[in-house]
Amino acid sequence: MEGTIKLTDLIQNKGNFSYSFEVTPDVSEEDIDNLKVEPLFFSVTWHAKMHQCKDLSIAPLKTALQLKSKQKNVLLHLSCDMMTTTYLTDLLAMLQENGICNLFLVLGEGFYPGKSDFINTIEMIKFIREKTGQYFCIGVAGHPGCSDEKLKQIKQKVDAGANFILTQAFFDVGVFKNFKERCEKIGVRVPLIPGVFSFETPRQLDGFVKMCKIKVSEDLLKAVGDNEKMNKPCTDIIKELIKQLNSICNITHYHFFTINKLNDVQKLIEELKQ
Predict the structure, then answer these.
(1) Pairing with 166, which of 74, 76, 141, 234 sits 20 to 30 Å away (CA)?
(2) Burial class (CB in 10 A: 0-12, 13-18, 19+), 208
(3) Residue 193 and residue 187: Cα distance in Å, rounded?
(4) Is 40's pLDDT higher than 90?
(5) pLDDT recorded at residue 2
(6) pLDDT grade, residue 133 (50/70/90)?
(7) Separation of alpha carbons 257 and 6, rounded Å
(8) Exposed, middle or buried by CB within 10 Å (0-12, 13-18, 19+), for 193?
(9) Where are any strands of DSSP class E within the chain?
(10) What is the full DSSP assignment across 3-62?
C-alpha cells in the first residue's frame, strides 16, 4: 500500500538525531494533534489481559488506525499472551489492508502458555513470516545487561526473521555499549534502537522503575538527588545520555517511552534540537 514504510528504512539517513514516541491506547487525540514536533513513528502498546484479543476493534487497534489516518507511521506492539493463530491471521490481514507494516513482538506481562497458541516470540515470528512473507518489519525487545542465555534468544529471534531490536530503558551508556558489542560478537547485526525514559522528578523515575521492573545504579539515584538539590532539571541527565550515545556508540535514533506525557517529551526534544 502506498505510504507504507518499514521502520528500518525510516530510521536510516535521518541525520544525527531522530526520535519516535511510545504511547498507550488511551492517549488523547488532542495531544497528538497539538504536537509541535514530528516523531518518525508512534509505537502503540498492547495489553492482552485488558482487551483479551476479543475482536479487531480493541483499543490498541483503534489507536493505531487513528494514527495511520493522520498519516503517522505506526509500530504496533503485539504479545504472545492470549494470542491464537486464528486471531493473529485475521489481525495481520487487517493491518495489511490498512498499510500498517511495523510490529514489535513481546511475550507479554504475566504470560501463561496455556492460554496462547504461541510458546514464545520466536514461534510468532515464524508464523508471521509463513503467512505474510517479508511484508512486516518485525522488532523484538532487548534488555541491556541481559544474561548470555537471553542474548542467545535474541539471536534466535533475529535468525527467525526479526529486523530490529528495541531496548528497555537504561541510564548508563556503558551498559548499552557493552550490549551492542555483545550483539555484534554473536552475529546480531540488525539495527539496535535505544529506549529512552525522560523523567523530570525522582518520583517519576521511581514509578517507571517499579512499573517496568528495571534496575538503576546507585550513581544514577545520587545524580538525580543532586540535581534536585541544586534545582537542576533531571532531564539534563537524559540529555547527557543521548549526547554520549551519539558520540560513543554512533546512535542517531532514540525511542521515547512517553507514558502519554507528550508535552514533557516534546519540550526535551526541542531542547535537544537547539
Answers:
(1) 234
(2) middle
(3) 17
(4) yes
(5) 45
(6) very high
(7) 20
(8) buried
(9) 18-23, 42-44, 74-79, 102-106, 137-142, 164-169, 192-196, 253-257
(10) T---HHHHTTT-TT-EEEEEE-TT--HHHHHT-SS--S-EEE---HHHHTT-STTSHHHH
Residue 39: partners with Cβ closer than 8 Å, 6 or more residues away: 19, 20, 21, 72, 256
Q: How far is CA 41 from CA 28, 45, 223, 273, in A?
A: 16, 13, 31, 18
Rounded Cα distance between 263 and 181, Å, is 34
- What distance in Å separates the CA atoms of residue 238 and residue 71, rounded to the nearest whole number? 29
Q: Which of 107, 49, 116, 47 is nearest to 88 (CA)?
A: 116
Q: Radius of gyration (Cα) for the chain, nearest Å? A: 18
User: Model pTM greater than 0.85?
Assistant: yes
Alpha-carbon span 196 to 241, nearest angstrom: 9
Domains of the chain as residue ranges with CATH: 7-272 (3.20.20.220)
**Rounded to whole angstroms, how far apart are CA atoms 29 and 5?**
23
The HSE-up count of residue 207 (CA atoms within 13 Å, CB side) is 11
Q: State the chain's mean pLDDT as an integer.
A: 91
Match 528495571 to its residue by C-alpha cell: 214
Q: For 161-233, list the strands marked E by DSSP.
A: 164-169, 192-196
Q: How far apart are CA 132 and CA 92, in angstroms?
A: 8
Say how many C-beta atoms besides its own lie within 10 A of residue 7's C-beta. 28
